[in-house]
Each structure stands twice: as C-alpha cells, then as structure tokens.
Specification:
The complex is a heterotrimer of chains A (about 300), B (about 260) and C (about 280). By secondary structure, chain A is an alpha/beta fold. The model of chain A has no long low-confidence stretch (mean pLDDT about 85). Helices cover about 35% and strands about 30% of the residues of chain A. Chain A has ten helices and 14 strands. In chain A, the strands form three sheets. Chain A has a six-stranded mixed beta sheet, with helices on both faces. A four-stranded antiparallel beta sheet of chain A has the order 2-1-4-5, with helices on one face. In chain A, strands 12-13-11-14 form a four-stranded antiparallel beta sheet, with helices on one face. In chain A, helix 2 (about 90-100) runs parallel beside helix 4 and helix 3 crosses helix 4 (about 135-145). Chain B is mainly alpha-helical and about 260 residues long. Chain B contains 13 helices and no strands. Chain C has about 280 residues and is mainly α. Chain C has one domain (about 20-275). In chain C, about 70% of the residues lie in helices and about 0% in strands. Chain C has 15 helices and no strands. In chain C, helix 5 (about 80-90) runs antiparallel to helix 14. The longest helix of chain C is centred in the middle third of the chain and has 26 residues, at about 170-195. The chains are: A alpha/beta (about 300), B mainly alpha (about 260), C mainly alpha (about 280). The interface of B and C includes residues 44 and 64 of B.
C-alpha cells in the first residue's frame, strides 16, 4: 500500500497551492509539516480526492484518487474544520458515517463501539455533539476516521484543541496505528507534536517539498549548515585545542565560566566517533553533551528560511 | 442507499429549514379556516367554496408555495452541507457522488411532498366540510388529481433548483427571478413563451386547475396569430415534465461529481 | 443582574468629534455587495428606464410632427407615468434588497462579529444605519435615480416650462416614494437577516413576507382592506398619495400609515432582539 504523487500541482486562479510535488508515502506515520499557507491542507484535499489536480497525479496503489469512490473504502479522513451534524450524538454520528462504508447495522455498531473506546469517549457517546467540548469533538472526528479500520488514515491537525492528556493518548494511538502497518498522514504546523509522533516527515513550504524522510537524515543532508554540539566538560581549553585540529570542525566557541563549548562540525558521525577517544586520552570529564540542532525546529528553520 | 435516504431525511427533520417549510405550508390552511369563519362577517364578495379550492390550489400552492419551498429546499441540497462544512464527510465515503445528490433529492422530494399534501388535505377538508359533509367524498377525485400535480411539481422543481444551486452563486435570487419574474409574467402572455416554463406543463397535466385563457385584447390576438399555441395533451405535458426532471437530476448529479470542495 | 449587551467604551479621555462609524460600515458593505449578480439585476432593472426614456423621446417627436397615437399619448401624458414607473420597479427593488441585504447581518452573526463592532465606539444605531445604507445605496439606483432622470428628461424635452410649473412637486414625490420604499424594504430585509441562520432562509422569508399577502388577497377576496396586510399594497397606496393621484385601494392614509409603522416596528423589534453581542440570563 502506498500513496504516490507525481509532479502534482494545484492552482487556485493565480495562486499556486501545490507546486510540482513528487513524493511517496508508505506504511507508518508521516508528518506533513509546514508553516501556515504552505500547502498542507491543499495536499491533503488532493490526497483525499476532494480536489482535482491541476497537473500531475495522485495515486493510491496505482489508482487515481479523484472521483474514485471505491478507494475511499481504504481511507479514513479527519478534516481540520470543526464541522458536525450537531443535532446527532457522538455515537450516532460515528455510526452513520460508518454505515456509509457499506457495513451492516450490527457490524457498524460494533465498529462504532470500538472507535469510541479507542478515543475514550464512552462517557459522552450518548450526548449531543453540540454539548461537547472542543477536545471531545476532536476525538469524535478521529473516531469516525478510524471506525472503518482503513488502511490509510489522513488526519488534518488532529490535536487541535485537545488537553495534554488527550494529546498524549492520541499521539500514542497514532504511533500504534503506524506500527501496525497503516499509512498515517498527520498534518500539523506544531513541530514538537510531529516530533513526538514520527521521525518521518514531509516538509512543505510554498507548495513545494523542501525535504522528505527521516528527521535525522534530513539534518545530516543539510551540510551547508554544520551541526552544533554543546559540550560541558572539565577541561574546556584542552578539548577545544584537540577539536580544532580536525578539518571537519568549522568552529568552536567556548565559555570558561560555564565550562562549556559549542562546536560546529560538518561531519557529525565522525565527530561523535572521535569524542570518546579524545576525552579518554586527555582525562577530560564530560558533564553533558547535546545537539540543539538535531531536531525538527532547526531543520525547519534552516530549510524554510 | 436505504440507510443514506433515512439519514438525509433525519437531517432534514432536524433542520430548522423544514420547520420553516412546514409552517409556511400551513398558511393556506390557516387562511382557509379564517376565511370560512369570517366570511359572513367581513367579506362582501360571494365566492362559492367549491370554486375556491381550485383557486387556492392554483394561486397559493402551484404558483407560490410549491416553487418557493422547492427553491428553499432544492438550492440548499448541497449548499447546506457545504456551508456547514460537513460535505467533506460525505465526499470521502465510498459512495458515488451522484448517488449522494440523488438520495438527497429523493429525501427532499419525499419531505416536501408530504408537507404539501398534508397542507392541501387540511385545506380541502375544511372547504369540503364548509360545503357539507358529503362533499369530502364526492370531490375526492379533485383532491387526488391536484395532489398529484403538486407532488409532480415538487419532483420537477426540486432538481431544477438543485441545478441552480450548483450553477449560481446566489441560486435563491436566480430562482425567485425565474419563478416570480419569468414564469409569473410569461404564463399569462399568449404565445409560445410559456413553453419555457415548468408551471405551464403542470397546468396542462390537470387543465381544470388552469385559469381560463380568455384574453381578447388586440395584443393577445396578434400574439396568437404569430405564435399560435396548441394546447398540449396531459400525457405530453407529463412526458415533458419527466424529461425536465430527469435532465435536472442528471445535471445536478454531474455537477457534484465534477466540482471540487474548497471549504476549510 | 442579567447582562444583555456589551457596549461599554473603555478608553480614557474624550473623542474630539463623534466618529462616523456608520459610514465605515456602509462603505464596507457596499463594496462587499458589489458582485456579478447585483450588476445583472441593476442592468435588467435599467431596462424599464430605457423604455420609459424612449417613450418620452418618441412622445416629444411625434408631438412635433402632429401625430399622436392614442396609446402613447395616454401613457406619457398621464401623470401616473412616474408613479407607475416607481411601482413597476418594485420587483427589482426586492431583488436588489435581497442581494445587497439578505446576508448583511446573517454573516456577522455567523462569524460572531458583533463583538468586534460593539467593543469599539459603535452603537446599535450606527450599526443599523450603516447596514441600511448598504442596501439603500443600491436600491436608490433602481428606484429614485432612474425616476429622477426620467423626470428631468421630460422637463428638458418639454417645449415650455408648463410641465415643470405644474408638476415640480414630482421631484419630492419621487424622492419621498423611493425613500419610503427603500426604508421599508431595507428594514424588513435587515430584520429577516437578523433572525435567520443563513442568507438563503433570509431571502426566502423576506420574499414570502412581501408576496404572500398579495396572493392571499387575490385568492380569497378582492376586498381592498386586505391590502393593509401587504407591504407592496401599502407602498403602492403611499406612492399614489405622494403623487396626488387616485389611490388603488380604499383604505385611508392614516390606516396606511399605521400599518407601515407596524411593519417598521416589527423590523426594529427583530433587529433589537438579535443584534447584540452577548446575552447572559442569570
């Protein structure tokens, strides 16, 4: 099972929503990341067949998505909009949408119960959606997307309005679904949310894919931006002098008062292999070592800038 | 499909629009009752109750309520879901888009027909009782035939306005212009222009409902000479109406199939 | 104590002059209402004006030659020419009111914008007056403006000043009649816009309110006092009084005035009930 886009473009009049986007999304959780107006929602609408590509194609297992209702048996979609048939209860809302997958009454009822349990909405299932809090409505939205147990789950800003406990549980559920081999696409502009869910991202800006793949691999590929490593140790001077001998170390800034140095290196793997040897030979104690760069925010800010 | 039809009927029942339609549809019945009760006191004209029923059916139902309520419902068939942003749920189910439209039209037609028939029955009953108890049975044929025209009209107007809802940004204005501007004036003008209306064919299905065309003015005679109008048979009118309904259902289904969903 | 409305003003000091917030609201509404649909209605609504102008020109030309078809003479010499023109424009007035006005307050309700308005120094009066001007601006283009132009065409092409000397008051009649129609229609459409949940409903309720009494009158009786329940009949009656011609209905001007005041009161009530920021009932 895979989703493929090939030179996908979408215009809204003069505005380019998605620009020549080519990517492949396979099983697991994929984070769709980008600033506001990057084209995430446009891409999601193209993936879910709500919009037709202006150019290029979107295929799921080789089949075009647009106007292909049969493919929707395998897709579960939770839109960003806070939209429901508010007169319905949470349970009847999920049940109705599950029945539309073609399940019988009994089967749909069973699946509805499972979905409600998965999002922990048992207590509120019989209440009208109009009386739900934002977080409860968000959970119902996710429940209707997972009720048919689809192979592909597309969630647009799923954690919007959720409290911290709800977020944690939803993130865990998403990760579990990814581990189960489903294709889960989660769109967000909140970096740490995506980081908690997945290592695989598609970074979009101005309708184009800036980067695709594992966060750490992407980081390594950005060799125009050396990796920063911050080390607190017992002997800043000696460590600085030793590190400066290597060509791949671009710069070292040190602060004696803090016993801290900040190293910029273009070969992080080599750097990390070298460090134990240096500290052992020179009797240096390392108090802490971390890379402020090896996260999504750094990747994001480098690429989007 | 059955489940979807029940679902859309349930949606309609919970929609304030249906409440408004039901209230509006009671207006003829309410005013009929008022007329019967107050006629001896307030009205100086002498109108026989037997003549009043065709007049009410023609003026209030056929020329006003039916197209207005069909416009109210038809223009919102997909528009409502789009405005409430729930269309995304429907379009991402494994259901062909044309089926969504057709089932919604079916649900709308059922609702509108039931509401109008109840209102018509109330009006008919009150007028029949005012004439004497046996009139209810003896004139039942009139009620059934006029009811069928109303139901048929709903089946044609609803998809017609659903198409308007798909094409125009302001389908209500376009619909009001068509019904009360175009149909409202052309139906009384001698000549072939009335062929480009729906209400003309509804009149021809049951000619007893029509106002007698008796204009003898110079303009009417000239128009009749230039564009002589042959009175079409009820069967022909029925066929034309069926054709209009089928074309509009196909068009409105096609519109949803090709249109993109931009909301959110 | 129940809080019905937040319209407090929270700045220190005083304003040098009263800001014309209604003008800002009106300008914004007029710009937003400008659309293809409105342009089409305005263009179609101008056809009767063109026909009327042609009739006036033809009348003056055939008068010069000495030929006077009876029907043309009757149409153009009749003092009810301008009154009839305004009356016949009522359908376009209704359409313009729907296009320009049906969504004005509904959209603010839907987008919860009342809080934005009334947390500024904008009063209920400013808001309603601004919204009213959004409708009135376009409505005047299909009523008062073409009627006035026709009047001045007639004055201009008249061979002498006798027409103007006799019928100078038509300027005030035209202004009065069109302003009255515009005010009543705008009030009603804004009222329905305030109580409805969407533009479609608002338009349908407005149209039903206007047309239904006429149809009921035709259906049940030809008795003229039924016109008291019809806004269009009331406006026709007012139109006749303003042009000093024989009114079409038998009810008197004070019955007509009372009925119009009731209609205005109903519109005001709908607006007052619904145009508010918050309603907290203890």
């Amino acid at each position: 099972m895979k989703i493929e886009t090939l030179k996908l473009s979408k215009w809204y009049g003069q505005v380019l929503g998605v620009n020549n986007l080519t990517c492949t999304i396979g099983p697991g959780v994929t984070g769709l990341l980008g600033p506001n107006g990057a084209g995430k929602t446009t891409l999601i609408k193209l993936l879910t067949g709500l919009m037709r590509p202006s150019q290029g194609s979107v295929r799921i297992n080789g089949e075009e998505v647009w106007n292909n209702h049969r493919l929707f048996r395998q897709i579960g979609y939770a839109p960003e909009a806070d939209a429901f048939w508010k007169f319905m209860t949470g349970e009847s809302f999920i049940y109705s949408l599950t029945r539309m997958y073609g399940f019988s009454h009994d089967e749909a009822a069973k699946r509805t119960g499972r979905a409600i349990a998965a999002v922990e909405m048992e207590e509120g299932r019989d209440k009208k959606i109009a009386s739900y809090s934002k977080g409860m409505r968000q959970r119902i939205k996710i429940a209707q997307a997972i009720s048919a147990d689809p192979e592909i789950l597309i969630l647009d800003e799923p954690l919007n309005g959720m409290d911290p406990i709800g977020r944690r549980k939803t993130i865990k559920m998403i990760r579990d679904m990814g581990k189960a081999g489903k294709i889960v696409i989660v769109s967000s502009h909140i970096l740490h949310e995506i980081e908690e869910m997945t290592d695989t991202i598609i970074l979009i800006s101005h309708g184009r894919v800036l980067a695709e793949g594992n966060i750490y691999n992407i980081r390594e590929l950005i060799d125009t931006h050396p990796l920063k490593v911050v080390i607190r140790c017992s002997n800043v001077d000696v460590l600085t002098a030793k590190l400066m001998e290597f060509e791949d170390v671009r710069s070292v800034q040190f602060d004696r008062s803090q016993n801290q140095l900040t190293v910029e290196t273009v070969k992080p793997d080599l750097f990390h292999q070298r460090i134990p040897d240096i500290v052992l030979k020179n009797d240096i104690t390392i108090y802490s070592m971390f890379s402020p760069d090896e996260n999504l925010e750094a990747v994001f800010s480098y690429l989007v800038r | 499909m059955k489940f979807m039809a029940r679902l859309f009927i349930s949606h309609a029942l919970h929609n304030k629009r249906i409440t408004a339609i039901a209230v509006l549809s009671l207006i003829p019945a309410v005013f009929t009752l008022l007329f019967i009760l107050l006629k001896p006191v307030l009205f100086d004209t002498d109108i026989a109750y037997a003549d009043l029923y065709p007049k009410i059916t023609r003026l209030l139902y056929l020329h006003f309520l039916l197209p207005l309520l069909a416009l109210f419902l038809g223009a919102a068939i997909i528009g409502d879901e789009r405005e409430e942003q729930t269309l995304a749920y429907l379009l991402t189910r494994p259901v062909p888009r044309y089926q969504i439209v057709m089932i919604k039209l079916l649900a709308g037609w059922v609702m509108l027909s039931i509401i109008l028939m109840i209102s018509l029955l109330m009006t008919y009953t009150m007028l029949a009782l005012a004439q004497g108890g046996t009139a209810w049975f003896s004139s039942m044929g009139l009620f059934i035939r006029s009811g069928m025209v109303i139901v048929l009209g709903a089946a044609v107007y609803l998809p017609f306005f659903a198409v308007a809802g798909g094409f125009f940004k302001r389908p209500v204005v376009a619909g009001l212009f068509f019904v009360f501007g175009w149909e409202g004036s052309v139906i009384f003008i001698p000549g072939k222009l009335k062929y480009i209306t729906i209400v003309h064919y509804l009149h021809r299905v049951y000619p007893s409902l029509s106002q007698s065309a008796g204009s003898n003015s110079l303009q009417a005679n000239i128009l009749n000479f230039i564009m002589p109008v042959k009175n079409i048979s009820p069967l022909t009118a029925l066929a034309v109406l069926a054709g209009i309904a089928c074309v509009c259902i196909a068009l409105s289904s096609m519109l949803l199939s090709v249109k993109e969903y931009y909301a959110d | 104590m129940p809080i019905f409305r937040e319209s407090y003003q929270s700045w220190d000091g005083f304003l040098k002059e009263r800001p014309r917030t209604w003008l800002v609201i009106a300008k914004a509404g007029i710009k937003l209402a400008w659309s293809k649909g409105l342009i089409i209605v305005l263009l179609i609504g101008s056809i009767p004006f063109v026909v009327g102008a042609v009739k006036l020109f033809l009348f003056s030309k055939v008068q010069d030659v000495g030929i006077m078809p009876a029907q043309v003479k009757q149409v153009v010499e009749d003092v009810s020419f301008f009154s009839n023109f305004l009356r016949d424009q009522s359908f376009y007035l209704i359409l313009v009111s729907i296009i320009a006005g049906a969504g004005l307050i509904v959209k603010d309700k839907k987008n919860k914008s009342f809080g934005f308005y009334f947390s500024k120094p904008v009063t209920f009066r400013d808001y309603i007056f601004g919204k009213f001007l959004c409708v009135a601006g376009y409505a005047f283009l299909v009523t008062g403006v073409p009627a006035l132009i026709l009047f001045f065409i007639k004055v201009f092409i008249s061979r002498d000043a006798s027409f103007f000397n006799t019928y100078y008051y038509f300027i005030f009649s035209i202004l009065g009649s069109s302003l009255l129609s515009i005010t009543v229609m705008s009030g009603i459409v804004l009222g329905f816009s305030a109580i409805s949940n969407n533009i479609r409903s608002s338009a349908i309720y407005f149209f039903t309110f206007l047309l239904l009494p006429d149809i009921l009158q035709k259906t049940f009786s030809q008795v003229s006092y039924m016109g008291l329940f019809s806004v269009t009949a009331l406006l026709k009656q007012a139109n006749a009084y303003l042009f000093r011609i024989k009114p079409p209905y038998e009810f008197s001007w004070y019955a007509m005035t009372a009925a119009l005041i009731c209609v205005a009161g109903l519109s005001f009530l709908m607006l007052k009930l619904k145009v508010r920021t918050t309603e907290v009932v203890a």
